[in-house]
Structure formats: C-alpha cells, structure tokens
Amino acid sequence: AGFGRDTIGDFEEGVDKLEFSTDIFADFAAVQALWTQNGANATIRAADGTKVTLLNTNLADLDAGDFIFV
Questions:
Q1: pTM of the full predicted structure?
Q2: Where do the H-state alpha helices sit in the chain?
C-alpha cells in the first residue's frame, strides 16, 4: 500500500524528515530514481502511483539526511 497523494507546504530541508516504508522505497537512491522537479515543487512518486509533493522545495537541496526508511 502506498501513502496517497500528499502535499506538504512547509517542509524544511535539514530540519524535517520524510519517512517511508522500505516496502515503498528501499533507500535514498530509490527515492532519487522516482523524484521530479515541477517548477518550484518537488514530487516523489512511488511505483504504484502514489505521490508526495513538497511545495517550494528544490530537489538539489534534499539529501539522504532528509529521509528515514523503516
């Protein structure tokens, strides 16, 4: 099961963390393989079509420390 179609408007790189089940994304490289920059927003779309959009977030600013995999 995925995480829906979520939008986060106040994500702060280096402060906040996104948590994903390893059933959805095994690791940071798996997230990177499926993320896209859409204007000012970053979208992470799982293989099943569920997605999370980070408003006003640049993918270049995200790193492995912004994610938790459980």
A1: 0.88
A2: 28-33
